[in-house]
């Protein structure tokens, strides 16, 4: 007897997964360097005791969606929650993609957009960004008119390049897109402008957000989108019953009460991001401006992979993007705590000296 072969098209793009190396300074997966506020954890502990664990959780995540609706000034019926924003993206592909349909992506961008599309049997139409990684609206319009994608993904700020789109760019994509426009704002709070301001009834736009970065809750696996009610209703049809566990629903609802602390953290990260960019300016690297909690850079005198290894040897882990399409030689560093960033900058200076 032999085990059956799984689908051949399941492999994730070579080099995407970040190795989990045991180091002192981890700046590879764009998490928050700080844990959530202690008062949030106290409140969570207090509420966990009241969960009826023998019962399924609230299937509609009513309280969580009400809290998020309050945060964004929309109706709860405009919010869809899932296990990380990756699951939100997967639900979008399940509901709007599938065989005979396509999505559009503009590379280099977040690898999971095309990966999830492939997993759901959705074709991927790809356009390239300009050499400075900005979105080329002529390319966007060519790709959209050629492929008629059911979903057009815009990642803003874009992972891994850091650049954010402005209102006029998103409006142009919306005007050209034949289907749904998904603005992935996993890093939205670090940017100057959000596409949330364009979401409205009858507008084919959704904005996805996550608790994994700004909210310091990557372990909770919680993400959501804001969009028109009918899109949320379609996503609820593809979500598994009771897919959001009770603890997660409480964790997310309570987090929203700590939005002030979250904003303070964003302020710290943005200041540290500026400091890192300024310091990179005096090293032999090319660094790209960022509106996210990470910075993309390319060492000019040594190979990216070698620099990555030399940093690991100094107990600093960054993301090796050097084999990703369009990013030859590039590394991406997450903005960490001031001490983490000092450790990164001095290790990098030593490696490049
Ligand atoms: N979108 C982007 C652009 C990301 O970088 C990430 C995290 N790597 C995600 C979505 C997914 O985040 P999560 O599933 O943790 O919410």
Explained architecture:
37% of the residues lie in helices and 16% in strands. The chain has helices at 38-48, 62-72, 85-96, 111-119, 137-147, 167-176, 229-238, 246-256, 259-280, 304-313, 338-352, and strands spanning 25-27, 79-82, 102-107, 123-128, 151-155, 180-184, 205-210, 223-226, 285-287, 294-299, 316-320, 331-334. The strands form 2 sheets. A 7-stranded mixed sheet has the order 2-8-7-6-5-3-4, sandwiched between helices. The longest helix is centred in the last third of the chain and has 22 residues, at 259-280. The radius of gyration is 20 Å and the shape is globular. The mean pLDDT is 95. The structure holds 4'-deoxy-4'-aminopyridoxal-5'-phosphate. Residues 30, 84-86, 110, 155, 159, 184, 186, 210, 212, 218, 223 line the site of 4'-deoxy-4'-aminopyridoxal-5'-phosphate.
């Amino acid at each position: 007897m032999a085990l059956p072969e799984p689908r051949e098209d399941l492999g994730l793009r070579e080099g995407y997964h970040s190795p989990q190396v045991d180091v002192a300074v981890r700046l590879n997966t764009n998490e928050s360097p700080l844990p959530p506020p202690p008062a949030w954890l106290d409140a969570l502990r207090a509420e966990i005791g009241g969960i009826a664990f023998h019962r399924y959780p609230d299937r509609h995540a009513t309280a969580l969606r009400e809290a998020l609706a309050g945060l964004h000034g929309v109706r709860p019926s405009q919010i869809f929650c899932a296990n990380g924003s990756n699951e939100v993206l997967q639900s979008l592909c399940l509901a709007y993609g599938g065989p005979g349909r396509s999505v559009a992506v503009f590379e280099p961008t977040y690898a999971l957009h095309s990966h999830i599309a492939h997993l759901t049997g959705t074709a991927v139409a790809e356009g390239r960004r300009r050499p400075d990684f900005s979105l080329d609206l002529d390319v966007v319009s060519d790709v959209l008119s050629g492929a008629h994608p059911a979903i057009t993904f815009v990642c803003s700020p874009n992972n891994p390049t850091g650049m954010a789109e402005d209102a006029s760019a998103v409006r142009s994509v919306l005007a050209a897109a034949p289907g749904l426009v998904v603005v992935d704002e996993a890093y939205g709070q670090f940017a100057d402008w959000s596409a949330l301001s364009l979401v409205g009834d009858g507008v084919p736009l959704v904005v996805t957000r996550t608790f994994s970065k700004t909210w310091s809750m990557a372990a909770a696996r919680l993400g959501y989108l804001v969009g028109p009610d009918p899109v949320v209703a379609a996503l609820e049809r593809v979500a598994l019953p009771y897919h959001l566990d009770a603890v997660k629903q409480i964790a997310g609802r309570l987090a929203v009460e700590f939005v002030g602390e979250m904003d303070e953290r964003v302020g710290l990260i943005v200041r540290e991001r500026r400091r890192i960019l300024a310091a990179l300016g005096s090293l032999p690297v090319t660094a790209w401006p960022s509106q996210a909690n990470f910075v993309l850079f390319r060492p000019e005198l040594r190979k990216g992979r070698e620099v990555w290894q030399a940093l690991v040897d100094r107990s600093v882990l960054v993301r090796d993007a050097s084999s990703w399409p369009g990013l030859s030689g590039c590394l991406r560093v997450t903005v960490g705590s001031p001490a983490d960033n000092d450790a990164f900058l001095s290790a990098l200076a030593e490696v490049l000296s």
